[in-house]
Each structure stands twice: as structure tokens, then as C-alpha cells.
Amino acid sequence: MTAKSWIEACAAEEIDVEDVIRFDFEDRTFAIYRTEDNMYYATDGFCTHERVHLATGLVMGNIIECPKHNGRFNIPTGAAKRRPACEALQTYPVKVEEGKVFIQIEEGSQT
């Protein structure tokens, strides 16, 4: 069984409202979001369609649009919402403490 840990991803102020940034940890990459309602979320960093990084995508409300083929995902749930994206993104628990954003991941595991 792999241990889950809270990993510091960034300062909360590093992400603008309705924006996304890239976060790399070990050999994995994530996308960290701040939605229009000032909530923070984390998903795998790459689109499930062609592995383009979502950090250069467009955040619209609770939706992230992939910059390559415009596939869309629901940020809180990871659900694919528009083709060509058909497979959901993996999501991760997020907490904000003392102005820092943490995501909970299984250390040493691959996504």
C-alpha cells in the first residue's frame, strides 16, 4: 500500500482567479486550478486525448479547455465534457493552509 501525502504545490496567490498553473512533482505533472468562485482544484496535468499540458489551456468557470484540440473537462470532477476528450482526468484532494496550496497524492506512484 502506497502512502498518501500532502505536497505543497504553490502559493495560493500564484494562481489568478479562473486560471491554471503547472506543478511537477517527482516524475509526475499536475494542473492546479483556481475557479471563478475562488476554489482550488488539482488534476493530472495532461489532456487524456493527446497528452498536451493543460496549464496553457483556458479556464472558463469550472471547465478547462485543452489548448490543442479544444477538448473540455469539468475541473472539480475531471469528467470529459467535449470531444475529442473522452476519458476523465484524475483529480486530487486540495487544501489551502496559511496561503499555500497542497495536493494529496500517493508518493512513488505513477498516473
TrEMBL record:
Q: Where is the signal peptide?
A: none
What SUPFAM superfamilies does the record point to? ISP domain
Keyword annotations: 2Fe-2S, Iron, Iron-sulfur, Metal-binding
CDD domains named among the record's database cross-references: Rieske_RO_ferredoxin
Q: Does the keyword Iron-sulfur apply?
A: yes
**Chain ranges of the Rieske domain:** 7-103
Q: Which Gene3D superfamilies match?
A: Rieske [2Fe-2S] iron-sulphur domain
Q: Does the keyword DNA repair apply?
A: no
Q: Which PROSITE patterns match?
A: RIESKE
Cross-referenced Pfam families:
Rieske (PF00355)
NCBIfam families tied to this protein: MocE_fam_FeS
- The name on file for this protein is MocE family 2Fe-2S type ferredoxin
Can you name the source organism?
Paenibacillus hexagrammi
